[in-house]
UniProtKB/TrEMBL annotation:
The lineage of its organism: Bacteria, Pseudomonadati, Bacteroidota, Sphingobacteriia, Sphingobacteriales. The gene is mscL. GO terms for molecular function: mechanosensitive monoatomic ion channel activity. Belongs to the MscL family. It comes from the Bacteria. GO terms for cellular component: plasma membrane. Keywords: Cell membrane, Ion channel, Ion transport, Membrane, Transmembrane, Transmembrane helix, Transport. It comes from Pedobacter hiemivivus. Channel that opens in response to stretch forces in the membrane lipid bilayer. May participate in the regulation of osmotic pressure changes within the cell. This is Large-conductance mechanosensitive channel. The chain crosses the membrane at residues 12-33, 40-61, 81-106. It is found in: Cell membrane; Membrane. It is a multi-pass membrane protein. SUPFAM superfamilies: Gated mechanosensitive channel (SSF81330).
């Protein structure tokens, strides 16, 4: 089988297309969660803590850095070692929210699948031809 033909068969398989759709939807979903974290949750958390921007939270491990210096400026100070943890907190909260949203989505889908499986199948009424064949069968049995 030629390389091009084999690649074409691979690329148009249903699972590959499902994966592509999932990646696209996942990217859009990630942006929604990122916006929820940055625009809704972080302002609430920073109101309690007192810092508006988590990305500038850091601790100086070595050297001297002026107080209230932005992170990028603190990194430029010679001989200063900066432990920047603020962005990690933001990304961690973002991940937890995304994981919770995906969990709730999967849980909802599983619940719907269980309801479908539990629903009894509706008996289909026999067609007139099937009813006639059943009558003939029963008559032949009784002979």
């Amino acid at each position: 089988m030629g390389f091009v033909k084999e690649f074409k068969e691979f690329a148009v398989k249903g699972s590959v297309m499902d994966l592509a759709v999932g990646v696209i939807i996942g990217g859009a979903f990630g942006k929604i969660i990122d916006s929820a974290v940055k625009d809704l949750i972080m302002p609430l958390i920073s109101a309690v803590i007192g810092s508006v921007d988590f990305s500038n939270l850091y601790v100086v491990l070595k050297g001297t850095v002026a107080a209230n210096l932005p992170l990028e400026e603190a990194r430029k100070v010679p001989e200063a070692v900066v432990f920047a943890y603020g962005n990690f907190i933001s990304v961690g909260i973002n991940f937890l929210l995304l994981a919770m949203a995906v969990f709730l989505l999967v849980k909802g889908i599983n619940s719907l699948k269980r309801k479908e499986e539990a629903a009894p199948a509706v008996p289909v009424a026999p067609t007139p031809g099937e009813a006639l064949l059943t009558e003939i069968r029963d008559l032949l049995k009784n002979k």
